[in-house]
Design brief:
Layout lengths: L2 H9 L8 H9 L3 H30 L16 E8 L5 E6 L4 H7 L9 H7 L10 E5 L4 H9 L3 E2 L5 H4 L7 H9 L8 H4 L5 H7 L3 E2 L2
Parallel strand pairs: 1-3, 4-5
Antiparallel strand pairs: 1-2
Length: 212
Amino acid sequence: MTDRNRQKNMSEPEFTDQTPTDSLYQKLWPYRVPVIFFALGIIFLATAVFLFYQETIRGQSVVISNPYNSSNPPNPSVIKADVEGAVVSPGVYELKVNSRIQDLLIKAGGLSIEADREYVSKNINLAQKLSDGAKIYIPSVGESSSNLSNLSHLININQASARDLESLPGVGPATSAKIISGRPYQTTEELISKKAVGKAVFEKIKDEITVY
């Protein structure tokens, strides 16, 4: 045996009585290094894909949805108003901007059988526009009679004349003009929010005024 043959025999395994598997193994043996690197590359790639997927899932699980983000802003065309007392279904309702008291009563199922309809017809303007956060109270029969006696001396800021308004303490011609221009009012406190009067004047007149 020559030295060359001896070296070849030492660097390569001997294959005797070869089966099909041994034959394939013999064919791949010279390419063992690139095959190993290829297999390792596949393993690394699969691991990287798996880790990336896990990070994506983890990132999605901690996303907090903001109901008021730029894609879902508050609806400026909707208001909420509260109706209580002698109506079929008292509660807070959503209505379109520029809705009227009548619209709110319809949402609430209308007046109940206990409602004082005479009081409503005399003191509640069903055509009055509602503002966001408004509250309407419908009295029952008997309940409203005592309310009427209490309200008889109060000045309705939605209906009073300039002369009547100027009879209030701290209210002059300029202030009465502001009150009239700010109508309608859902509550007496809207005199402040609409800047018709200051807080000091409101404290003087709050027990002498009403909106119904």
